[in-house]
Specification:
InterPro entries: MFS_4, MFS_trans_sf, Sugar_transporter_CS. Pfam families: MFS_4. By secondary structure, the chain is an all-alpha fold. 55% of the residues are buried.
Length: 388
Amino acid sequence: MAAGAVLLLVVHGLGRFMYTPLLPYLMNDGLFSAADGAAVATWNYMGYLMGAMLAIRWHRIDHIRRILPLAVVVHIATTVLVAVEADLTAISTTRWLNGVANGVVFVQAPALILEWLVLRNRASLSGLVYFGVGFGLLLSAGVVSGTADWLEGPERWWPAAVISVPLAAWGTWKLMQLDVPMHPPVAINKCGKALSTRLFDRASTPLFLAYAGAGLGYILPMTFLPLLANVELKPGHWLQDGSWLLVALCTILAPWIWNRLGAIIGDILALKINFAIQLAGVLAAVVIPGAPGLILCAILVGVTFLGTVLLTQRIGRALHPHQGPRLSAAMVALYGFTQMVGPWLTKQWLDAGGTLSSAFGIGVGALAFGLVFLFFVPRPNEWHSRAV
């Protein structure tokens, strides 16, 4: 569990989301504009989508044991490369490739751990691997603010590269030692027939659609919240660096909170509550100007978005227990697609003369869309008790 959390800390905290607090500094350094920054984010999210799609193709345990270490190496290499590049095209290409590696690791590491836990009847602990993302966000906030005065331009990525190398090496080594069968037995129904391998059916389709809404809804504040603070607040305001730190602090306990709440009241009900809180957070940034709206957005999105991931993944596997890593990969791919769309829509909105604050309304609509579809997701026990 600790090894998986460390890998997520590296690829998500120091690789992907470190870009969020870095973006205002990179713009002030003259590396690119807000619209260019949104485009770079879109390339990274496109890579994330492609990585998740690769994980759908290579979803078996024997695949994971070969592909996961390679993806970690690519992640480290691209983090080093982006620290020495100043050309926008080169940065976009490197961040795209970094996203591919991130998508593979983010699917395969938790999926491998979940299969290991299921074999030991401890699947309810699976959400705790996402502690790594929360600590990664906190570490990224500290690294960016702590080195802001003595680094400039692309070299602002160097601390992330240096920290990532030993952590990634240890996490990969430990995960490769997990005892998980290479080829799990084929699941059968009560009539003795092999279960369907369709990813989309009446149970999973509304869950996929809800997850798509969540991906588009959360990615706007998770990409642009510090930039919004720089736009709306006076220079030197503590939220210009502090908004991302606030998100990170609220994220720390989120896996435990939603893991526990799902176990108490059921994952589906917990997920509905999660969506409602997250929607309120993004809405706050739209309708409440200045610091109060930013603080509410940081707190409510920070405390919920990891819960969305772990609860959805667990519900999906409960509906299709025979799908395992393949289902997880498909969900992350869809999530990745909507995350890619978010910065692209923001860029179009900004280019058309819209404000960054009003662009967050896209996220509000997406989360409302997702919440509606959650009411069509059946409880796993009721779904499996239906006549075959």
